[in-house]
Design brief:
heterodimer; A: mainly alpha; about 80% helix; about 0% strand; B: alpha/beta; Rossmann fold; Coagulation Factor XIII, Chain A, domain 1; 2 domains; 6-stranded mixed β-sheet; 5-stranded mixed β-sheet; 8 helices; about 20% helix; disordered C terminus; ABC_transporter-like_ATP-bd (chain B); ABC-type transporter activity (chain B); ATP hydrolysis activity (chain B); ABC_transpr_TagH-like (chain B)
Amino acid sequence: MSGVAPIQRFSRFGAMTWAGLLGPFRVLARERQLLGLLVRRDIIGRTRGTVLGWVWMLAQPALQVVAFWFLLDFVLRLRVPGKVAFIDYFLTAMLPWLFISDTLNRCLSVLTEFSSLYKRTVFPLKVLPLLPGLSGCLVYTPIYAATMGLLAGPGAAVQAVLLMTGLLVLLMPACYLLAVLGCFVKDLRQAFPFTLNMLLYLTPILYLPEMLPQEFRELLVVNPLADVMAVFESWIHGLPVTAGNFIRPLLLWLLSLGPAWVLFHRGEPHIREAV
Amino acid sequence: MTAILLHNVAKSYRSYDHPWETLWEVFTKTRCHREWTALHPLSLEIAHGEVVGIVGTNGAGKSTLLKLIAGTLTPSAGDIRVNGHVAALLELGAGFHPDMTGRENVYLGASVMGLSSERVDRLYDGIVEFAGLGEFMDQPVKTYSSGMYMRLAFAVATAADPDVLILDEALSVGDGAFARKSFERIIGYKDAGKTILFCSHSLYQVEAICSRVLWLDHGRLVMDGEPARVVSAYAEFLGGGGEGCGTPDQPAPAAVAGSGVGRLTKVEVEADGVEGRKLTVRSGQTDLTVAVGFASDPALPPPSVGLTITGSNGWAVTSASTSNDGLTISRRPDGSGEVELSFPRFPLLKGAYWVNVFLLCEQGIHLYDRIEHAAELEVVQDGLEQGVVSLPRRWSVNGAPASAVSPTVPTVAAR
């Protein structure tokens, strides 16, 4: 008897993970038309009413990058050893980071933001957590591909597109989890910007991993974003990467697929009443 | 064939002290909520082609039932099965994104309803034409008036030819010509054998349109059956607030002019040739005349005119309408016309009464315009007869007809 329960638990977790893996893709396929409309509107809506219009879509991340570049390269005169120029290293990690932080931040409030669509109508709610990631991906991928193409050649542009697509898939469980948590745990929205800032500082984006003091380097092992950035730097610039850099985020992704999907699914009937 | 099947469906709303308790409860199965029941277990079978009206006071569970059937709420218990494509119009502008243009919202709404973009492409011109918003379709809907919002929502919801149409207090939306158009579309669905569910406070419309009426009270089904029977029972339940005998029941100012398709231009009430807003009427003696003038869209069929006389407690004592009496009103080419209704030897007994006049569509269902409290009648009588009306009657004494002795009761054979 004692051996059956863990097996059952394991098989239930396996089923949850499978559902969490296929679920978002099924939603993508089934509601592609609706998602297309929402993403299009989301992108247009971000810059509507401005003089420069869609130019801001490119200018906003570019200006953020310029601000950090100014601080690190001109003010702090940060120099890194090795064959890759600091600006190349920095841009390779910073643009995906902007995509990640933008997506996760918006996921927290996406159910409230679009409540007018589903409060009194039949609406496929599982579409909404995918929206910030998709529109973010559409905005950042061309910029990233163009930047990487300029820095490391046309091959890097193709790699950049693949990496951003992979990142979108990697973020999916986090999107569902944050969407449902943001709906019910309002305090999270207040604390999240701080969390994102800490994540940025603890991820080797503004510095190389080797520049961290020894006692902090172990933190990189428990920070999946550090692994993701290591993979990005490795693909684009050929910097060293370990198997752990692949395994840790993939494992975390696999483990979070099921719980995130199931939590959203169970919370779904209460979302309309909560908002 | 069954269109909607409910088996022991119940709905309780939960309230939590903190929103996070919802998730905690979902996770741990620990009860953290208080709940109140909006709908007690209800089993129901609605056949294809039935037009079901739901009546009940506020908080009776009407909207909850419609939302459960529409699928916007999940039942706390029981099963709901709906066969066919459902379109629901539950709230003004529900399902619209305020920042999106009318055009985008058409595609959005249709997409949520499961229509492909190719199908929406084909339906789009019809939707825009029906809503009458051609020049506004590229503006964000947040710039629309509530009427425009509703017109677009109605046009989208009904464009896809749903098998089941669910309407919450939106039987005819907008005003003027659009109200008539939306009403005609609903009647068209009814004639086409579609299943329609709607809740309304207008018992007149419920009785006129429905083939079946459900009466809910405090989340329980009180009565389910023929409209006349249920509406009558519900009106009785409402007591002084009843309006079951022919009055569109919204409170209205003394004179409300409809726009677009028809409006009342004149209502004059005369008692024995004396016209006024407050008249003294002698029961059984005074001839009461109501002259009604109207203007209507000549392109539409001639309207019908209705009248109710209500007591001081709000009860409709009697009503009359040209549509019910089979009279088609002839109009001038510009759509205007007059009708006159007489009550010879006014048979109501002592008391205060109000005269209310309505201009309706040719079927006597859709309301164009009304003037409530067009005149107040103070009825006086000579005898001691009790009640509200003196019925025509005939006495016989020892098998032989007897002459009437009361001046207020003529010797008229009962019809």
